[in-house]
Structures are given as C-alpha cells and as structure tokens.
C-alpha cells in the first residue's frame, strides 16, 4: 500500500515521477530538467503549491540536480520547502545505454525503500500516520565549525560524514546543517564522528602539538 504524502514533491523528470508514484500517493511535479529556470508559469505554480501544501524537493545527487535544487530554493518561500536527498550510488538506469556524466544513479534508479527513507528523513507529512517528526536540534554554523565540518580544511571531513549518512557528495555546508537538524542531535553527530574527532582541523593540530 502506497503511503499518502501531503506535500507536493518536485522531481526532475517523468521517470523520476513514475518511480516515486510506485512508492507514495502524492502530487508529483516535474521541473523538466533545467526547464524550470525559464518557465515563469511553472515557478508561479510551484510558489502557489508551496504556500498551500508545502514542497519537498527530490532531485538527483549530481551537480545538475543540485543546480535545480538551489534554483528552487531561491524562488520558493522560506519555510515552505523541505529537502529530500538520495545517496550517491554508482551505476546507470536500465533504460540508459551509458551512465550519466558523474556515473551516479538518479531518483529513478533508487529502490522504493530508499525513496521512502529519503522522504521520511526530509520530514514529509504522511497523512496516514501524521508528520514524521524532525529532530529540531537547532545546530548552527558555529556547531559545524566546532565539529570541524565547516571552515578551512573541512571539505574532506564533511564528505566523509555525508558518505556515512548516505547523503550526496554535492551537499554544501548549509545543506548538511539542514539535514543534520532533521536527523540528529549534536551529541549523535559527535558519536558519528568518533572519539577524538571533534574540533576544527586547525584546532586539533594545535592540541596535538602541545
């Protein structure tokens, strides 16, 4: 039985839409790839949907998907958009002769379980069971700096954590902060980083040299 989602889910193309509708009963809207960048009518339609029902953005985890995601963030009202992420998985969809430029599976190539988990982690409102609660930890950029997940030399550390959490590599520090606030408390993040791993790289180097 498909679970019903209150928010409107925005994806890139029709194959993504078809895959998602096998998992959930929801209104799914396609951006038609980069078509959303020049389609004022579609932008106005999405703003109306965001105001009335809220939007969940679910794009591919490659660079193109993140360009579309960033554009949607810029045109939709703050507080009415949720971000759902699929993990970086190498491969190609069956219908394609060769993999995409970055060699990653897109939304259409994800299993139903992965798609459902992505929506749950984004805080989707499942009308058959109420909203999936967000963690609401209110971590800030200062927390990321203290944990060595932002600032100079943090990119490798941030990507290692994102890989551990099945989050895409293209995620920015701000995107990571948003995802962590949905999923974990600061204490849980520290546990994920491991003992002795807290603190910015330069702070740890300074402590080790004492």
General form: globular
* Secondary structure category: alpha/beta
Largest sheet: 4 strands, parallel
- Tell me the helix content: 40-55%
Give the strand tally: 8
Strand order of the largest sheet: 4-2-5-6
- Radius of gyration, in Å, reads 18 Å
Give the N-terminus to C-terminus distance in angstroms: 60 Å
Unreliable stretches? none
* Helix-strand sequence: EEHEEHEHEHEEHHHHH
Number of helices: 9
Strand content: 5-15%
Oligomer, anyone?
A: single chain
Give the integer mean of the pLDDT values. 86
List the helices and strands and how they pair.
Blueprint: E1 3-4, E2 8-11, H1 14-21, E3 24-25, E4 28-30, H2 40-53, E5 55-57, H3 63-75, E6 81-83, H4 112-122, E7 125-126, E8 130-131, H5 141-146, H6 155-164, H7 173-183, H8 186-193, H9 201-208
Parallel strand pairs: 1-3, 2-4, 2-5, 5-6
Antiparallel strand pairs: 7-8
